[in-house]
Amino acid sequence: MIYYLQFYDLIFNLYHEFSYCDSLNHKKQSITVDIFIYDDKNEFILIKRKNEPYKGYWALPGGYLDYGETVENGAVREAKEETNINVQLKKLFNVYSKLDRDPRGHTVTIVYLATGNFKNLKANDDAKDAKIFTKKDLSSIDLAFDHKIILNDILTSLKNKINNN
After folding, report:
1. 10 pLDDT exceeds 90?
2. How far apart are the C-alpha atoms of 12 and 149, rounded to whole Å?
3. What is the pLDDT of residue 17?
4. 107-128, pLDDT tens digit by residue?
5. If 0-12 CB within 10 Å is exposed, 13-18 middle and 19+ buried, where does residue 57 land?
6. Cα Rg for the chain, rounded, in angstroms?
7. 10 Å Cβ neighbour count for 102?
8. CA geometry: angle at 93 spanning 84 and 29, to 5°?
9. What 3-state DSSP class applies to 142?
């Protein structure tokens, strides 16, 4: 009986160590979504952040993905929560995962292009303010995270698309 209990303890401990060690000790990155909401004049919406980090800076509408939520549903939800706009996702634009893009830790963001009715624009949730911008406005505002890089990538892509049509 003693040997059986010792054997059982050994198997239990080995199982626990090898089965759970990755899930217990493995650091995980956070997943966010950012949404570039634009119109046919290439105007787009930015929100002013209400909270740290980057409190008072302008940013793309977006936020953390909820557990069990698809990235598409998360993008639609975050756009509605922060801008009051029901968006139609047009394209998965890119994924940004630079290790230092968020001071809170390693955060991967999935960026979508979307359209929606700008007449419904109203800051909500984590947004202190929400406004419509153009590319020329970007030089005079402070942007959060790596959103200057993301916006430049998007605007370059849209410009190239227009020039190729």
Report:
1. no
2. 50
3. 47
4. 999 999 999 999 999 999 999 9
5. middle
6. 21
7. 19
8. 85
9. coil
Cα dihedral 18, 21, 26, 28 sign: positive
32 Cβ contact partners less than 8 Å away, ≥ 6 residues apart:
62, 63, 64, 65, 102, 107, 108, 109, 110
Structure tokens belonging to residue 95? 């994924």
Q: Is residue 125 a contact partner of residue 82, using CB atoms and an 8 Å limit?
A: yes
Q: How far apart are CA 165 and CA 163, in angstroms?
A: 6
Q: What is the pTM of this model?
A: 0.83
The pLDDT, as a whole number, for residue 28 is 85
- The pLDDT value recorded for residue 133 is 98
Q: Which of 78, 76, 98 is nearest to 89 (CA)?
A: 76
The rounded distance, in Å, linking the Cα atoms of 160 and 59 is: 23
- For residue 127, give the 3-state DSSP assignment: strand
Q: If you count them, how many residues does the chain have?
A: 165
Using CA atoms, how far apart are residues 106 and 42, in angstroms rounded to an integer?
Answer: 31
C-alpha 42/C-alpha 159 separation (Å) is 9
